[in-house]
Amino acid sequence: MTTEVTAAGKPFIHVHSAHCESGVTAALFRDKGVEISEPMIFGIGSGIFFGHLPFVKMGGVTISTFRSQPGAVFRKSAKRLGGKFKTARFRNPKKGMDELRRVLGTGQIVGLTTNIYWLSYFPNRFRFQFNGHNIVVLHEIENGFRVSDPMLEEPVDCPAEDLERARFARGPLESRGFMYYPQSVNPNPDLRAAGLQGMKDTCKMMLKIPLPIFGIRGMRYLAKKIIRSPEKLGFMGACRELSSVVRMQEEVGTGGAGFRYMYAAFLQEAAELFASKELARLSGEMTAIGDIWREFAVVSARIIKKRGQTEETFEKAGGLMLICAGREEQLFKDLAKAAGKLKA
Fold first, then answer.
1. CA of residue 116 relative to chain centroid, distance
2. Strands (E), the chain
3. Does 59 have pLDDT greater than 80?
4. CB 282 within 8 A of CB 339
5. Burial level of 340, CB count in 10 A (0-12/13-18/19+)?
6. Distance CA 320, CA 177 (A)
7. How far apart are CA 282 and CA 279, in angstroms?
8. How far apart are CA 103 and CA 105, in angstroms?
9. Is the pLDDT confidence value at 233 over 70?
10. What is the pLDDT, as a whole number, of residue 8?
11. CB 155: neighbour CB atoms within 10 A?
């Protein structure tokens, strides 16, 4: 953690986070005096999810997601914690930058959704086309802005031209300069009620969506697709698709193992909040499931790099995903039952 001074002259504590959106949302609440952890924001905001989107392609390969849609964690956690936020999108980049400067001029820090490729403070090897990276802008500097990026160890400077490009990049999930900042927050939010809402909503998303590409159904759908992929796509084509899954799990899914470790941390905090042995047990189970997701990533990497071909196969990778699906299905059924018995 490092301390920075905002335009309002008060200290801002920069915290390195596991995931950008939950990290930024937690930072905005902390700036208003509400101490809350990133895992708690992630859980309250129903961040954990799974979806395989065969009709959406990025770089020629299909997309799989291990979290809820971009912006959902912020919206749901803000609402459930009693925060009122101002949000805005812009058709005109100049108007978007002018509004950012205006709000910063009032002393307010601002959350932005950006494309990470155009953020020049990242080394080239870490920059890729993704329109869902969240940052906090602290204040304007000469020819640029002071930025708290939750992926970094300390605040950095970003040229104004680069920030404008990052905010208004075209492509899938383009944010059109999306900015958000708190107008007021509840200084004493009901974490128990908010946590219960988050748990019940997450269980519903993982278990009840009838479409075969979402939740537990989506995991099984993709697992079977991975097993069959060499026959349908050839070895190289299957590797490209598999590498996309792993990248979304371990790089874009920056919480580790597709955010499963972060959700385990949320369940552990909730267990303490409710004095619940069952939530503590489920936290341990989610950590164990995260370990299997990590094993899936290692096996997949070996397949892609053509290492250990005798024992590492697409069938093994898909089989590990099927194991994750089965254990997560039971976990979320148990969590729904436990949440139904808890009182806010």
1. 14
2. 2-5, 11-14, 48-58, 61-67, 84-88, 110-114, 133-141, 144-148, 156-159, 179-184
3. no
4. no
5. exposed
6. 39
7. 5
8. 5
9. yes
10. 66
11. 18
pLDDT at 248: 87
Burial of residue 190 (number of CB atoms within 10 Å: 0-12, 13-18, 19+): middle
User: In the chain, what is the straight-line distance between the N-terminal and C-terminal CA atoms, in Å?
Assistant: 32
Using one digit for the tens of pLDDT, what is the confidence trace for 130-187? 788 899 999 999 999 999 999 899 999 999 999 999 999 988 778 899 999 999 999 9
The mean per-residue pLDDT over the stretch 320-325 comes to: 98
Structure tokens at 184: 């007021």
pTM for the model: 0.91
| Residue length of the chain | 344
Q: How many CB atoms lie within 10 A of CB 81?
A: 22
Check residue 69 and report its DSSP letter.
Answer: P
Distance (Å, rounded) from C-alpha 34 to C-alpha 187? 6
The 3-state DSSP class for residue 122 equals coil
Give the tokens for residue 146: 């002071």
Give the integer Cα–Cα distance in Å for 242 and 239.
Answer: 5
- Apex 174 CA angle, 169 and 177, nearest 5: 70
Domains of the chain: 2-35+84-184 (3.90.70), 191-341 (no CATH)
Residue 40, token pair as written in the block: 């708690």
**Cβ-based burial of 246 (10 A; exposed 0-12, middle 13-18, buried ≥19):** buried
